[in-house]
Every structure is written in structure tokens, then in C-alpha cells.
Amino acid sequence: MRVAGVLQACRPMPALWVCGWVRTVRRGKDITFVALNDGSCLENLQVVLDSRMEGYAAAAHCGTGAALHVEGELVASPAAGQSWELHARRVRILGDADGDYPLQKKRHSFEYLRSIAHLRPRANTFGAVFRMRSALSFAVHSFFRERGFLYVHTPIITANDCEGAGEMFRVSTLPAEQPPMVDESIDWRQDFFGEKTGLTVSGQLQGELFATAFSDIYTFGPTFRAENSNTSRHAAEFWMIEPEMAFADLADDCVLAEDFLRYLVRFALDSCSGDLEFFDQRIEPGLIDKLEKLATADFSVMTYDEAVRRLERAPVGFEYPVAWGADLQSEHERYLTEQVVGGPLFVTDYPADIKAFYMRLNDDGRTVAAMDLLVPRVGEIIGGSQREERLVVLQEKMRKAGIDPARLDWYLDIRRWGSCPHAGFGLGFERLLMYVTGMENIRDVIPFPRTPGNARF
Ligand code: 4AD
Ligand code: MG
């Protein structure tokens, strides 16, 4: 049985077996207590070894980190804080661990645990984080399935830089010795795909194609950005969820984003309460209250114009100047969410010049129908927009952005045949996890983080 199931037993059990890894061993003269964890929950199962049992000496000397198979009897525990304990009859040491095992019983810093990313899933915090990650992945699919959205797998290798920010990782089979690796000197026709390709920065463009056939779709997959920003919110490889809806505008997009985030938070509250209590106590005090509030209260909405005015009037100083036309920096986002509205905030209608080419131009000719959802502590968690569905306007926007319309002829085709208003967004899955767990560094919510200089595990 798994430990989580054992700990929820409703009656004693005369015989059962459990496998797991040793968290701690407390040796006494006649009795040894072993705390066993198998990752199914935060709690350990207390295994009691009695010196009269066969093979006691070997079992009692297993090391922290050892893998055990324990057979025994489940009885009510006299100890405080646990309802059951397993009185072992037979213990098999499947794999012992020596005294060098790095996860000894003490609190390790997250920096240290990152350096042993192969072992950190066995630490309490990371057990809780990765259970949450798994549970919320499931919740993503159940949300969209309940609403009839089609799940699309968009390509990882692509010739298109959707965001146009020049942050694509190159994919190439050309010999590395072709000097110098300057784009202009490379004949991409010689390459595997016959053109310049890279790892996707977003599945949106292909998502739009599917939305104009299936109406409502979503993607959920790995996304890559070679942005050399060594921050606590950026990873070179992250997971993004991108819904796309035909026959929808920016207001519909915001409604979906709000419903989605609420659903995920509600799911975490209802299904992961043990791990959330741990985060609330150890990582972010007040976390559960914050999530309960988010699950019920309406999100605030503000245009970019208004946001800039609020920032200009702020009684605090900012490192980066605030001016209409400049992108909001994380300090601005934090001020707006933490000081101005005290919760999640949609900022809408950004200047066209700082947003991607595909966003729909507003009637004022200088802003686009875009929205970013900002949350306290994390900042931007969602970026979305209504898409430009008017062929001529889109072609003009592409020219302005320096994109050759001929390269995206397939994308323009859906504006030629059956074009319709449509909108979507991208939620950064790791940023969601940071918000829901209170973890402060993106490196600590993804199993094996990819950041500049870091691809070891
Ligand atoms: O705002 P972004 O760049 O939007 C897009 O990619 C659109 N194509 C989405 C769409 O409309 N379908 O990215 C969306 C979200 C951000 O709000 C952020 O949460 C996350 O993706 N994100 C990152 N997360 C971790 N590391 C990075 N380097 C990230 N870049 C973006
Ligand atoms: Mg964005």
C-alpha cells in the first residue's frame, strides 16, 4: 500500500506491506523507530522495529535515504500527531544508503537543494511542490475538458518566432565548424528542414489555426526562450497553457482567464489541502487566505493608460522610469497589484509598439486589444489578446514589425477564408505554481530547471 492510503486507514490491519525511503531513524535499546516516506503525501509512516524481530540488527542500522520493503501490522499509534504506526515483522533493505547521503535531517537551503536536483524531490518542500505540479496539470485538462475545448499538440520545432522577440533557441544539424556562426553567412537551405528553425516560444500561431476549425482549443506544452535574464521568474524552458477561442473578443478572453485561474486555485484548495497547509506554515504565511480570496473575489481591471497614471502618481520611487510607451517592469507590476489594488489585476490596451504583431489594433490606432494578468509577488502570470483578424491591418502590422508576410502566408490564409474575431492567452505554468505554493524562485517549481548556465540534470 502507499503511505497516504495507510495513514487514512479506518481500522487496524493485521498484515500489510509498504515500500519507501527512510527519512529518519531513531535507535533505542529495544526499539527503533523508522520514518518512512514514499512520496504519496507529506507525512511519514512510523515503522516500529522491535529487537525481538528476526533481522533486527540489520534493519535498525539502515541509513537515512535507504529503500525498504516492510511487512507488518498496522496498529493505532500511542504517539501524538499520528494515528497509525506499522509494527514490522520483516524488513528487507532494497538499497541501503551510507552516511554521505546529502539529505540528512536538517533544513537545507533551496540553493543547496538546487545543486542536488536529482535528490531534492525527496525533500519535504519539493515533494509538496511536485505533487502540486502534478495535481494542477490534471486540473488544467479537466477545466478545458469540462468546457469542450480541444487539446492540440503544437510543434516544438518551428520556423516561426511567434513573439518576434528574437529569443528562439536555434535547432540545426549544420556542422558547428561552419565559421562564423553569423546568421547571414549560413545557407539554411542546407539545413535539416531547409530553413532556419528553432524551439517554439509559443504555440499560439498554430493554436489559432486550430481555433478557426474547432472553435475552442488549448495547448499545454514546453516552451523555450533564450532570454538571458537571470531572474527568479524566467526560465529558458517552461510550460505554457494557451487557450484560443474563435468568435471571442478581449472581454471574453479576460472572463476565461479569470475563470481558469479561479478553477485552478479552487482545485488546489480542495485537492491538495495537506501540502497547502505546509506551504502556508513554512513558505508564505497567509497563503491559504490569499487563495480563498482569489477563488471568490472579482479581479480588478485597468487600462495601460490608467496604470501609467497611477504609477506616475506613486508616492514611492522606481528604479525604472514610468512613461507612456514603455513596458511595465516587475517593480511596477508589484506596486500596482500589491499597493494599488491588493490582488489580481488585468492591465489592458497596451501601446501597439511594445506588443506582438498579431494583437488587434484598437480604434485609437496606437493601442492594441491586449491584456496581462498581474498577481501580487509574481507579477505577470498571463499574457493574452484579441487577435488581428483583418487581413489588410495584419499585413500592415507585420510590415511595421519587420516580418515578411510571405513567410507567414499560411497564417494570413485564415484571415482570407472565414476570418472571425478570436482571442486567447498564455498562462505560464511555473508562475502559477509560484503563486499557489508561495515559492519565490521559478527554479524551485520545475523538476530540472533550465536557466543560463544550468542544464546539468
Ligand atoms: O506574455 P507571453 O510572452 O505571451 C505569449 O507567448 C502569447 N503567445 C500567449 C498567447 O496569447 N497565446 O507569455 C505568456 C506567459 C507569461 O505571462 C508568463 O506567465 C509566461 O508565459 N512566461 C514565462 N514563464 C517562465 N519563464 C519565461 N521565460 C517566460 N516567458 C513567459
Ligand atoms: Mg507577456
From TrEMBL:
The keyword Nucleotidyltransferase does not apply. SUPFAM superfamilies: Class II aaRS and biotin synthetases, Nucleic acid-binding proteins. InterPro entries: Aa-tRNA-synt_II (IPR004364), aa-tRNA-synth_II (IPR006195), aa-tRNA-synth_II/BPL/LPL (IPR045864), Asn-tRNA-ligase (IPR004522), Asp/Asn-tRNA-synth_IIb (IPR002312), NA-bd_OB-fold (IPR012340), NA-bd_OB_tRNA (IPR004365). It catalyses: tRNA(Asn) + L-asparagine + ATP = L-asparaginyl-tRNA(Asn) + AMP + diphosphate + H(+). One of its GO terms (molecular function) is ATP binding. Keywords: Aminoacyl-tRNA synthetase, ATP-binding, Cytoplasm, Ligase, Nucleotide-binding, Protein biosynthesis. GO terms for cellular component: cytoplasm. It is found in: Cytoplasm. Its EC number is 6.1.1.22. It holds the Pfam family tRNA_anti-codon. Residues 130-447 form the Aminoacyl-transfer RNA synthetases class-II family profile domain. Its main location: cytoplasm. Homodimer. Belongs to the class-II aminoacyl-tRNA synthetase family. It comes from Syntrophotalea acetylenica. This is Asparagine--tRNA ligase. The lineage of its organism: Bacteria, Pseudomonadati, Thermodesulfobacteriota, Desulfuromonadia, Desulfuromonadales. One of its GO terms (biological process) is asparaginyl-tRNA aminoacylation.
